Amino acid sequence: MAFTVTVLGSATPYPRPDAPCSGYLVRHEDTAIWLDAGPGTLAALQEHVSPADLDAIWISHLHADHVADLLPTVYALLFADLRLRRPIPLYGPPGTAARISAFLSNTGRAPIEEVFAVRELHDGHRTRVGELRLETVAVSHGFPAFGVRITDGARTFAYSGDTGPCSALSALAEGTDLFLCEADSIEPSAEHLTPAEAGHAAAGAARLVLTHVGHTITARDAVRLAAEHFPGPVAYAAPRIVFRV
Fold first, then answer.
1. Catalytic: which of 36, 55, 65, 69?
2. Number of separate domains in the chain
3. Least enclosed by CB within 10 Å: which of 21, 67, 146, 217?
4. Model pTM score
5. Measured between alpha carbons, how far is 83 from 31 in angstroms, rounded to an integer?
6. H helices then E strands: how many in the chain?
7. TM segments (predicted)?
8. Is 65 a catalytic residue?
9. Any alpha helices (H) in the chain, and if so which ranges?
10. Which pLDDT value is given to residue 15?
């Protein structure tokens, strides 16, 4: 059975032409999960699935380049031509519902509960979506931020979200068939990883895919530097690429 990750976008901190910010579509048989909703990813998502047909949305943290497209999603599902069978489970950090509601408020509070069934994440949070099991892991980004492990019982995918070096990354990547990991900058930081640090963090994974590569380094160089510290295959999360877990 198919278990795939489609890159909707991986740019940071703003979208470029044909390169949305962070967003990924995880599919397993008939299950569809949108991971992170950076600017431009709602349009890219619709090349594969209608937002009305999503089984869940999972948000790593509340920086705009990972969450902003939840706002037009509300317009699409509440005020336009798309119709929901039921509110979409939306897993996000503490404060997710308040953040969306505050932005959309105009003459009164936006009824986002008609679109999203918001469930707040915490370290160790577990849930099931279709045949997939999701486990959330807290990472280090200066405020609440999370990575996630997703498994169908036979294969496992993990996503780092945005994070600096932390002990949680080794556990996040351990035993995964595919580890999608940020590699934002060439300079060490408490809130982001260098490609070399991403390579070290992925030690327990079978494959490494770099994402969220910042403007200070090219994707080609990021892959090269990560590969110096990771013995398995290393790739870059270019938009529209589909990875099989």
1. 65
2. 1
3. 217
4. 0.96
5. 18
6. 7, 14
7. none
8. yes
9. 41-45, 64-67, 70-78, 96-104, 168-173, 195-201, 219-227
10. 96
